[in-house]
């Protein structure tokens, strides 16, 4: 067994790196193997009548063994049958020889397997008529496997009733085994706990891959387990109408007897060697019976069949096929098993067949090697030892059953297969035709360009948080979360990068912050949304190839995307990319981040909130209406395509969410090792008392009732795939599993094959992988299903198909279909209160109206109502509420100014005042809906809709929308107004600018002059230049450093332009300009600015004599004019009287006081200051200390 | 203008210990005539700020403060008109505005017998006329006016430049008929992080093939440290909320920093010319 794992490990090194989860998974594999083994001996003693169920495992094992040599492409296909890990040392020589060939690949077939196919085949015809007279002339190979299953179920159930309670599933530890009766009698003490291979130490297990290496079952042949011996008793149980009946010719009583003897012997035998001998004998005799002319020898060895260049693909040749007849029979038999859902996992078998189809094999092995031929003759027929035979068989199987019902996309892929073309031209032709008639469309599931979750004010802004602090902390947490995500993206693939080591503490710090501010719900929502955002894609969101097998099915089913089929093809053909059809549950790609995040966070609060969030989303998605299509001419096609796409998205999201929910729910109970029976019993007793987080049973039942299990089962499977060891034994989950099994066994030919296939595939996978779910083939567990349940559910099962067929196949539910539920809208109706009966009547009328209309009408009306209602609320917010808030702002501003009032009280007052007007919202809302509803309905309904229908639809839409909108408004308008006013008020208090008198703000918002080209210098440029002037004026400066007077004049001219163009001006710039120019003026009047006169013509400043001599006057005049004309903000001219600026003045000679006087006059003249103001400023100057006066 | 890391390093190295005066700026322009003045000034300012951050603590020890204050007192005693504070700042390699602040704080502390409030200090720095001592007022004003990296005037200029470029960008968006939500509208709606513009309908850049949801205007040069800080405080936050976007460093950036394109933060030094819009909205 461990060799197998090693091999897998080598083939898939990527899976070797395992986290806790994987480790758990590995361990549980062993455990389930062990339980299978228990069950396999148990079965033997239960009842002879039950043993026909062994036929399927037998057949599957037989095929696996036969093909083991040839299948080098991809991982071996597990079969869910009892498995042995008997150490080689315990094997006898013959066993070893026989086992050697298979041990590293498909190994592990029970002795019983190699016993003979013939024994089954031969036994059948005799038994068949005896048990059932129903068989109708062998008309159909696939007549009724369901019947078989039911019969089986019933007989097993009877068995159960007849015996004792120990058979019940709730009977503790032994429930895990398929047929608990015997396992109760074969206590665990019989197992060799010291057997390292069966119970390897944990360290060994951790090194294993997470590959399911569930191999087919060698029956353990050890002394400790005397009961494990071939089950060959098929006397009383016919294989019903099994196709095997066709093989009636080879009947042999001897063979039958021999088998029985063999069994009896081995029961008694305590000696391994004896048993070996017995088996050998048995095998020998059986072979003779089936193929008397060919004495056989144990199989050839692996080394002989696998040359070094095994990677070369052999060219399969139909003419080289040997034993055609047997292969055909086998194919028929096998196809029937698949068709009747008798195989544990239909997908697995499909995978196996495709493996055979694409098998590589070797050229030496088949081209008449005489040694081998000898071997063959002496040991037995190896039907599958050549590629030719394998391909032949595969093509036969495909031709029979599976392929005829496969989806077009898959056919296309197969049509391209040249082997099919050469082996079966007719099949190829059929495939080709299907390919050509296919209307494949390229899926539009494009990767989302946005990787983050968008910020939505409705849910994310301040009003959604209890406090500013909580809001701001969450702002930080959001950013930290993405930082972690990016870090992970960048580094997680690097060697040595460890999630917990690098991110663990950061995550926990984040959790602590979240806890401190009770922000978990917000974060959980973000987390969940991000999860969907990143991982909803078809391949788990990551670039890595980490999809589950059912994903392939989905791909086959849901989309005809050629590229995906190519990928699928690659996966079948390229060995390295094949992970096998039944990987254990995993978190591929980006999902890994989210899982590790949860583990590292280790936060109870977070997990709880996340579960809440996931449940909510799951319920929401699961409740989405799957719409059936009107089966009208062409246009349904489009709907169908859209609907498929939508369905795919929803289904994938659901499965993702459910997987994480399952992970969280069962996380606390996860154990590395299988608990002992005592522990399990007490755990079961304890946990039976608790309620499940999400009532999956109810949802499952509902989905079956509502015929929408195609949506529900796949995600429930994901959820259940993560159960801990105990959970399957809880009453609740037992019911869930039983119900799921029923789904597998139910047979309804009307159901869309693809839907069924999906369900079968996911369930097959679940039963294959669920960590501690009893790994039975489903027939076995029928008796464990509550009988009541069986009969209650079955009638619905037929109905179920109709929906599903209508969904995927687009058949449309012409006779009613399923009933859509109307989403509840307003909590309280605002319609005038009519009598209850009247209202009821109205509702009935409405339902009646929709009943005979196409479903799209109802969908449209509901959609319009929902949107218009919602838009109405938004509109009211944006108009009426905004208006009221504005008014409140004005009122508040006045009141805040006039008194030092209590803010809360003030707010309350203002709001109360507004509430009355808020009542208008309802009137306006009604108007809005009345106007918008009909518009929308009219646009959306077909042009040809009759006026009456249109009117009714409009009315209903308006009513629903009004109800929704007004219901919300009447309940919330007051709170909404208050919230908005409060927010505005606190903004107002925070930003002092808002409290300034309104005129100023208004004035600074002046417009540009009408013909403004917006090409004035930028304010920043002007400030900068003025600053430079100030620098020179204030000093220090170079000796010869001067400012060109003309240039300065020019600067002031540009300043004027800049101020006139308002485009780039902002209040701070303007204020700064005002301040700077006042400073400049102060420096000018105190002659601090070293002006160069340049070549200034004297006549230009001829106004007055002194002005003529001093260019400063011109500059001052310019400044006065700019202050007066161009500034929008008040200019702080009074700064010129500040101590600092007067200080400059105090130091200058008499002449410059003239400039100051000139300035004062100018200020008054330009109405920048009133005379009185100037006087008061001058008076206050006297109070300053005048150091220079004393001089 | 994009600079390579090497080009940038050359400039930064030259700036080693240059004082933040207009004289230094003049030299810088002479040394790198091919670079735009705004770019040079922006780099200069950033480099100087880095230097100040490194030495900030050393100028704020009690001893240093006392020394500076005494030197100021002695200086103005001798000659009140001399640029005492400015020269002191240059001498000890500290920003004049910050030196002014230290001395002003110390002065007020002595005068009021209490530690003055930050608001008071800031207000006095903005308007030195409020400083109760005429001589100190002059000295402080001289410092703030001459400082080209720190101080209220420089802050105001930076703010003005930022605003002007936002307006420019807005004009360009309007010209291209791209509808957007501006920062103030976003704030009013309660967004916790707000880029300058969110495009209501995202656009793509033809050459790079990147989708853009938001645009942030930065009227500065994008050097390593400022870019890292912006990424941390702003750009990633925008990405986290709105998806990929565009940052325009109007005064250029170090080419090598444009390394998050694939993930969704694109750098440009001008408004892109290869904008592709969604066809639906084009038709309207």
From TrEMBL, chain A:
Checking PANTHER family in the record gives: CODANIN-1
Using the record's annotation, list all stretches that form the Codanin-1 C-terminal domain. Answer: 780-894
Q: Where on the tree of life does the source sit, at the highest rank? A: Eukaryota
Q: Where is this region: Disordered?
A: 71-106, 126-230
Write out the biased-composition intervals (Polar residues).
Answer: 71-92, 186-195
Which GO terms of the cellular component aspect does the record hold?
nucleus
- GO BP term, pick one: chromatin organization
Identification of the protein by name: Codanin-1 C-terminal domain-containing protein
Which residue stretches does the UniProt record annotate as biased composition, category Basic and acidic residues?
Answer: 148-157
TrEMBL record, chain B:
The lineage's top-level taxon is: Eukaryota
- Any GO BP: erythrocyte differentiation
State the compartments where it is located: Cytoplasm; Nucleus
Database matches in Pfam families: TPD (PF14811)
Under the heading InterPro entries, the entry gives: CDIN1
Q: Where the protein is mainly located, per its record?
A: cytoplasm
GO CC annotations? cytoplasm; nucleus
Q: Which UniProt keywords apply?
A: Cytoplasm, Nucleus
Among PANTHER family, the record links this protein to: CDAN1-INTERACTING NUCLEASE 1, SIMILAR TO CDNA SEQUENCE BC052040
The protein in question is named CDAN1-interacting nuclease 1
Q: Per the UniProt entry, what species is this protein from, by scientific name?
A: Strix occidentalis caurina (northern spotted owl)
């Amino acid at each position: 067994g461990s060799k197998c794992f090693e091999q897998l490990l080598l083939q898939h090194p990527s899976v070797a790196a395992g986290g806790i989860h994987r480790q758990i998974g590995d361990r549980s594999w062993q455990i389930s193997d062990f339980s299978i083994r228990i069950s396999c001996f148990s079965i033997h003693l239960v009842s002879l009548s039950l043993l026909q169920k062994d036929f399927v495992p037998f057949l599957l094992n037989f095929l696996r063994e036969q093909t083991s040599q040839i299948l080098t492409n991809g991982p071996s296909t597990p079969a869910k049958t009892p498995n042995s890990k008997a150490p080689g040392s315990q094997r006898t020589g013959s066993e070893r020889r026989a086992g050697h060939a298979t041990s590293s690949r498909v190994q592990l077939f029970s002795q019983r397997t190699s016993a003979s196919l013939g024994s089954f085949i031969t036994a059948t015809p005799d038994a068949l008529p005896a048990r059932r007279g129903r068989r109708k002339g062998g008309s159909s190979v696939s007549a009724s496997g369901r019947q078989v299953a039911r019969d089986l179920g019933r007989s097993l159930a009877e068995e159960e009733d007849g015996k004792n309670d120990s058979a019940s599933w709730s009977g503790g530890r032994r429930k895990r085994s398929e047929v608990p009766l015997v396992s109760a009698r074969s206590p665990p003490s019989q197992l060799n706990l010291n057997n390292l291979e069966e119970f390897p130490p944990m360290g060994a297990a951790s090194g294993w891959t997470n590959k399911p290496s569930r191999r087919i079952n060698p029956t353990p042949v050890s002394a400790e387990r005397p009961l494990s011996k071939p089950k060959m008793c098929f006397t009383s149980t016919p294989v019903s109408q099994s196709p095997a009946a066709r093989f009636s010719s080879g009947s042999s009583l001897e063979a039958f007897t021999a088998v029985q003897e063999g069994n009896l012997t081995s029961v008694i035998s305590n000696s391994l060697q004896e048993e070996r001998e017995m088996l050998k004998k048995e095998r020998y005799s059986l072979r003779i019976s089936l193929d008397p002319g060919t004495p056989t020898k144990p199989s050839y060895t692996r080394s002989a069949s696998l040359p070094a260049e095994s990677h070369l693909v052999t060219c399969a040749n139909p003419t080289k096929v040997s034993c055609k007849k047997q292969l055909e029979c086998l194919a028929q038999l096998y196809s029937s098993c698949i068709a009747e859902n008798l195989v544990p996992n239909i997908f697995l078998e499909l995978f196996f067949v495709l493996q055979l189809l694409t098998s590589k094999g070797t050229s030496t092995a088949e081209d008449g090697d005489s040694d081998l031929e000898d071997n063959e003759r002496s040991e037995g027929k190896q039907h599958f030892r050549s590629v030719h035979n394998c391909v032949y068989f595969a093509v036969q199987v495909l031709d029979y059953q599976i392929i005829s019902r496969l989806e077009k996309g898959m056919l296309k892929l197969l049509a391209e297969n040249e082997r099919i073309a050469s082996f079966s031209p007719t099949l190829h032709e059929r495939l080709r035709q299907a390919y050509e008639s296919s209307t494949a469309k390229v899926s539009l599931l494009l990767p989302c360009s946005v990787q983050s979750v968008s910020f939505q004010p409705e849910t994310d802004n301040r009003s959604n948080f209890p406090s500013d602090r909580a809001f701001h902390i969450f702002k930080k947490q959001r950013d930290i979360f993405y930082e972690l995500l990016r870090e992970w993206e960048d580094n997680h693939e690097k060697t040595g990068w460890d999630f917990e080591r690098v991110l663990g503490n950061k995550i926990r710090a984040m959790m602590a912050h979240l806890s401190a501010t009770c922000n978990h719900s917000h974060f959980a929502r973000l987390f969940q949304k991000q999860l969907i955002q990143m991982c909803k894609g078809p391949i788990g969101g990551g670039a890595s190839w980490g999809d589950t097998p059912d994903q392939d099915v989905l791909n086959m089913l849901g989309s005809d995307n050629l590229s995906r089929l190519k990928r699928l093809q690659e996966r079948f053909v390229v060995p390295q990319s094949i992970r096998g059809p039944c990987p254990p549950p995993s978190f591929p790609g980006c999902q890994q981040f989210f899982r590790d995040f949860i583990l590292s966070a280790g936060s109870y609060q977070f997990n709880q909130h996340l579960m809440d969030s996931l449940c909510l989303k799951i319920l929401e998605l699961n409740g989405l209406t799957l719409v059936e299509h009107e089966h009208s001419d062409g246009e349904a096609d489009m709907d169908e395509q859209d609907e498929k796409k939508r369905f795919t998205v929803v289904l994938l999201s659901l499965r993702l969410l459910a997987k994480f929910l399952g992970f969280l729910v069962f996380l606390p109970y996860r154990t590395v090792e299988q608990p002992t029976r005592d522990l399990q019993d007490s755990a079961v007793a304890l946990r039976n008392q608790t309620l499940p987080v999400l009532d999956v049973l109810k949802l499952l039942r509902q989905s079956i009732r509502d015929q929408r299990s195609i949506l529900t089962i796949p995600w429930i499977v994901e959820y259940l795939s993560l159960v801990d060891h105990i959970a399957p034994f809880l009453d609740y989950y037992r019911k869930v599993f039983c119900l799921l099994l029923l789904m597998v066994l139910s047979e309804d030919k009307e159901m869309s094959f693809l839907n069924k296939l999906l369900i079968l595939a996911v369930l097959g996978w679940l039963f294959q992988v669920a960590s501690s779910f009893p790994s039975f083939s489903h027939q076995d567990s029928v008796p464990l299903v509550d009988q009541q349940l069986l009969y209650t559910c079955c009638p619905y099962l037929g109905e179920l198909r109709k929906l599903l067929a209508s969904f995927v196949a687009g058949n449309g539910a012409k006779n009613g279909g399923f009933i859509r539920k109307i989403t509840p809208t307003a909590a309280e109706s605002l319609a005038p209160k009519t009598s209850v009966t009247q209202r009821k009547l109205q509702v009935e009328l409405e339902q009646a109206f929709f009943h005979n209309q196409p479903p799209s009408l109802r969908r449209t009306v509901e959609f319009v109502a929902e949107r218009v209602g919602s838009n109405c609320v938004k509109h009211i917010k944006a108009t009426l509420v905004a208006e009221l808030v504005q008014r409140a702002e004005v009122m508040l501003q006045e009141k805040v100014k006039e008194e030092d009032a209590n803010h809360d009280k003030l707010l309350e007052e203002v709001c109360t005042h507004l509430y009355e007007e808020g009542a208008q919202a309802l009137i306006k809302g009604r108007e809005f809906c009345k106007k918008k509803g009909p518009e929308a309905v009219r646009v959306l309904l077909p042009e040809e809709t009759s006026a009456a229908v249109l009117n009714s639809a409009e009315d209903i839409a308006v009513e629903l929308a009004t109800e929704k909108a007004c219901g919300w408004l009447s309940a919330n308008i007051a709170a909404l107004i208050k919230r908005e006013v409060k927010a505005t008020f606190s903004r107002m208090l925070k930003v002092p600018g808002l409290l300034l008198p309104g005129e100023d703000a208004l004035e600074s918002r002046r417009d540009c002059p009408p013909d403004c080209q917006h090409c004035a210098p930028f304010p920043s440029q002007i400030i900068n230049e003025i600053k430079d002037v100030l620098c020179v004026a204030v000093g220090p400066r170079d000796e010869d450093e001067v400012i060109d007077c003309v240039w300065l004049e020019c600067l002031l001219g540009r300043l004027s332009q800049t101020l006139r163009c308002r485009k780039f001006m902002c209040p701070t710039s303007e204020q700064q300009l005002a301040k700077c120019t006042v400073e400049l003026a102060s420096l000018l009047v105190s002659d601090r600015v070293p002006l160069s006169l340049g070549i200034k013509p004297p006549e230009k400043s001829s106004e007055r004599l002194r002005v003529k001599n001093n260019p400063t006057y011109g500059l001052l005049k310019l400044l006065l004019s700019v202050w007066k004309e161009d500034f929008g903000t008040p200019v702080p001219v009074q700064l010129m009287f500040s101590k600092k600026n007067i200080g400059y003045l105090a130091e200058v000679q008499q002449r410059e006081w003239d400039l100051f006087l000139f300035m004062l006059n100018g200020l008054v003249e330009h109405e920048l200051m009133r005379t009185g103001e100037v006087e008061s400023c001058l008076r206050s100057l006297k109070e300053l200390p005048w150091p220079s006066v004393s001089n | 203008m994009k600079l390579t890391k090497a080009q940038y390093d050359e400039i930064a190295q030259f700036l080693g210990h240059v004082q933040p005066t207009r004289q230094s700026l003049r030299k810088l322009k002479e040394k790198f005539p091919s670079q735009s003045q705004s770019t040079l000034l922006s780099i200069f300012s950033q480099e100087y700020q880095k230097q100040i951050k490194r030495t900030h603590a050393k100028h704020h020890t009690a001893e240093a403060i006392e020394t500076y204050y005494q030197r100021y007192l002695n200086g103005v005693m001798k000659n009140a008109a001399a640029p005492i504070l400015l020269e002191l700042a240059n001498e000890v390699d500290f920003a004049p505005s910050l030196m002014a602040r230290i001395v002003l704080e110390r002065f007020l502390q002595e005068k009021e017998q209490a530690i003055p409030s930050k608001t008071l200090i800031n207000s006095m720095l903005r308007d030195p006329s409020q400083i109760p001592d005429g001589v100190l007022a002059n000295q402080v004003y001289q410092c703030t006016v001459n400082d080209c990296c720190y101080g209220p005037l420089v802050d105001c200029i930076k703010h003005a430049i930022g605003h002007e470029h936002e307006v420019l960008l807005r004009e360009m968006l309007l010209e291209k008929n791209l509808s957007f939500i501006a920062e103030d509208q976003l704030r009013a709606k309660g967004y916790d992080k707000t880029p300058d513009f969110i495009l209501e309908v995202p656009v793509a850049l033809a050459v790079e093939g990147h989708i853009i949801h938001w645009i942030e205007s930065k009227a500065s040069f994008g050097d390593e440290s400022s870019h890292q800080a912006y990424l941390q405080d702003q750009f990633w936050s925008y990405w986290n909320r709105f998806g990929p976007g565009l940052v325009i460093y109007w005064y250029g950036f170090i080419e090598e920093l444009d390394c998050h394109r694939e993930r969704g933060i694109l750098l440009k030094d001008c408004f892109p010319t290869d904008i592709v819009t969604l066809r639906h909205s084009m038709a309207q």
